């Protein structure tokens, strides 16, 4: 059996596939900052495409996750017919959900949001621009059904949607970084891989928790308090005992 690569080599191999940022490499592989910076600095793809950076505490007023989301659409031509990629981002945690669509109608927005709700929970308030898809009676009725408030920005003022606009750039950068290695993947798989990197691998210099952990850990309503009961086998007697309350969940 071939020996396992060193931790540093494992970090390099992981970065070649996912292109996570420096804090993400430090958190996952417990290498030094200098080693992580060297991996990113010597990566041709990261030199060509600026590595995504995240911002912790995107709202300075102490909001918790699922208080406010921003949502918008961006165009990714290489996705073919499904080039309209809708993106929702939680203002507090930075957690992201994105889905590809064939159009920009209200029905596409609703499909995206239902998927986003199933992934990140239901926000108290949704911020959008004043486009037709967000101002329709159908969209207003949909948000009322789900109990979601709605705020729109100033017409023709993209600064009101700065967080989601920055997220568009991050998604496109990660897609460009990962695509040379994943040429045979479908566009849907590529988008899912990009979300995996942004939500679960990347983190910040300030907080070494990825956005999705920050998202669910910061909101008591989204925390799973109950632990699954487990049974254990006594290695000496071979007898199965339990069920017992699970004390810790993680790698053995």
From TrEMBL:
GO biological process terms on file? DNA integration
InterPro entries in alphabetical order: Integrase-like_N (IPR017856), Integrase_C_dom_sf_retrovir (IPR036862), Integrase_cat-core (IPR001584), Integrase_Zn-bd_dom_N (IPR003308), RNaseH-like_sf (IPR012337), RNaseH_sf (IPR036397)
**The EC number(s) this enzyme carries:** 2.7.7.49
- Integrase catalytic domain mapped to chain residues: 56-228
| Domain of life of the source | Eukaryota
- Single GO molecular-function term? zinc ion binding
Q: Which UniProt keywords apply?
A: Endonuclease, Hydrolase, Metal-binding, Multifunctional enzyme, Nuclease, Nucleotidyltransferase, RNA-directed DNA polymerase, Transferase, Zinc, Zinc-finger
Gene3D superfamilies (UniProt xref): 1.10.10.200, Integrase, C-terminal domain superfamily, retroviral, Ribonuclease H-like superfamily/Ribonuclease H
* Uppermost EC category: transferase
- Does the entry feature the keyword Phosphoprotein, yes or no? no
The family database entries (PROSITE patterns) matched by this protein are listed as: INTEGRASE, ZF_INTEGRASE
One Pfam family for this entry, by name?
Answer: rve
The UniProt record lists the Integrase-type domain at 6-47
Give the PANTHER family listed for this entry: ENDOGENOUS RETROVIRUS GROUP K MEMBER 10 POL PROTEIN-RELATED, ENDOGENOUS RETROVIRUS GROUP K MEMBER POL PROTEIN
Put simply, this protein is called RNA-directed DNA polymerase
């Amino acid at each position: 059996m071939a020996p396992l690569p060193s931790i540093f080599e494992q970090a390099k191999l992981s970065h070649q596939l996912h292109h996570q940022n420096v804090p993400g490499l430090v958190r996952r592989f417990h290498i030094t900052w200098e080693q992580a910076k060297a991996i990113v600095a010597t990566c041709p793809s990261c030199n060509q495409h600026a590595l995504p950076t995240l911002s912790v505490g995107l709202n300075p007023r102490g909001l918790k996750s699922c208080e406010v989301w921003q949502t918008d659409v961006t165009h990714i031509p290489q996705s073919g017919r499904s080039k309209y990629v809708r993106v929702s981002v939680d203002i507090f945690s930075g957690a992201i959900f994105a889905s590809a669509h064939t159009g920009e109608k209200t029905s596409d927005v609703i499909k995206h949001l239902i998927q986003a709700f199933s992934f990140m929970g239901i926000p108290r308030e949704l911020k959008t621009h004043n486009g037709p898809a967000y101002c329709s009676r159908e969209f207003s009725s949909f948000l009322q059904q789900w109990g979601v408030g709605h705020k729109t920005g100033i017409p023709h003022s993209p600064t009101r949607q700065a967080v989601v606009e920055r997220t568009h750039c991050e998604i496109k950068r990660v897609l460009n970084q990962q695509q040379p290695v994943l040429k045979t993947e479908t566009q849907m798989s590529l988008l899912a891989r990009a979300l995996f990197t942004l939500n679960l691998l990347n983190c910040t210099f300030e907080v070494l928790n990825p956005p999705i952990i920050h998202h669910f850990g910061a909101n008591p309503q989204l925390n799973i308090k109950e632990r699954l009961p487990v049974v254990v086998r006594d290695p000496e007697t071979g007898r199965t005992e339990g069920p017992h309350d699970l004390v810790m969940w993680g790698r053995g």
